[in-house]
Amino acid sequence: FDGKGHTISNLNVKTDPADSAATNAGLFGRICDGGVKNLTIDGAKVYSSKYAGIVCGVLSCTAKTGSVFVENCHVINAEAYGEQVAGIAGRSATTGAIKGQISITGCSVDSLYLAQVSQSDYPDHNPKNHYVGGISGCAGATVIDGCLVKNFTVDTIGTSLSTVGGIVGCQGASSVATDVTNCYVSGAKFTASADSHAEKTCL
């Protein structure tokens, strides 16, 4: 998908709480081949019990499929709610992928709020692990280069374990490591409840 520099405004995506198979939320729920480039998303709200990203819920492939990518995409004034949640991709990983097959390059996120979904909206969801990143919530075999995150707020209240990073919340979603290069984070804010166990990672 080539946005050709256009902007999508006021995107609103929410998975069906009654459908246990509906776990991927974003402009694209899941990208398994190909990618998204040259696009701005302004004023989005995305909700999922599992994977939530403004551009895509899940960015994944296998060694046998083609590469997947998000390139030159920009997110502003956005909110996302989920278990693995981020400004670009809730999860960017899959078992069997080769490093470099999954890439997020030249992207930016500005004025982003991330949190777990509420049990009032998803009554059957029991929030436990919470992986939160400005670019990717949980990553493996991913190359992230030249990305910027500004004015990033994370609320982990109501979760028992949260791992939060300015770029990547959790590195280790596959046996292949993630590379993060030439990225910058500023204006990060972090809120946790007294009964949660939360970790802020260096990424």
Continuous helix count: 0
Cα distance, first to last residue?
28 Å
Structural class: mainly beta
Helix content: under 10%
Our Rg estimate from Cα atoms comes to 15 Å
| pLDDT averaged over residues | 87
- Describe the largest sheet: 11 strands, parallel
Low-confidence stretches: 194-203
Write a short abstract of this structure.
This protein is mostly beta strands.
If you had to describe this structure to a student in words, what would you say it looks like?
It is globular and about 40 Å long. Helices cover 0% and strands 56% of the residues. The model is unreliable at 194-203 (pLDDT under 50). It contains no helices and 22 strands. 51% of the residues are buried. The strands form three sheets. Strands 1, 2, 5, 6, 9, 12, 13, 16, 17, 20 and 21 form an eleven-stranded parallel β-sheet that branches. A six-stranded parallel β-sheet has the order 3-7-10-14-18-22, with no helix packed on it.
Secondary-structure topology with pairs:
Elements: E1 2-9, E2 12-14, E3 24-25, E4 28-31, E5 34-42, E6 45-47, E7 51-53, E8 56-59, E9 68-81, E10 84-86, E11 89-92, E12 102-105, E13 108-115, E14 129-133, E15 136-139, E16 142-145, E17 148-155, E18 161-165, E19 168-171, E20 179-181, E21 184-191, E22 197-200
Parallel strand pairs: 1-5, 2-6, 3-7, 4-8, 5-9, 6-9, 7-10, 8-11, 9-12, 9-13, 10-14, 11-15, 12-16, 13-17, 14-18, 15-19, 16-20, 17-21, 18-22
Comma- or semicolon-separated keywords:
six-stranded parallel β-sheet, eleven-stranded parallel β-sheet, mainly beta, disordered C terminus, 0% helix, globular, 203 residues
